[in-house]
Amino acid sequence: xxxxxxxxxxxxxxxxxxxxxxxxxxxxxxxxxxxxxxxxxxxxxxxxxxxxxxxxxxxxxxxxxxxxxxxxxxxxxxxxxxxxxxxxxxxxxxxxxxxxxxxxxxxxxxxxxxxxxx
Length: 118
What we know:
The chain starts with a helix and ends with a helix. Strands 1-2 form a two-stranded antiparallel ribbon. It is mainly alpha-helical. The chain has 2 domains: 1-47, no CATH class; 50-118, no CATH class. It contains 5 helices and 2 strands; from the N terminus they run ααααββα.
């Protein structure tokens, strides 16, 4: 399967997951489905809720609690983003409580996300 058809297949699976809460899996996308299910606990794509923004001591506590995980994950996320070679993708590292620790995406996508946030 080439990269384009893989991304189209993944996009269709995402739409099915958002609409029905499940998607048929195989061994190659089982990990991704588990990730989507974990994220769904904190952010339902069908119902937008403004995320809570951490700052000050709360933000510092989150980063210090996850420092090693963030350090290791950063390299993995950067490598995956580079290998994917698709500026339509974003990779996020989210801690078990739903706090976003890392966002890796194209500048264009980051600017779009920033507009939605504000």
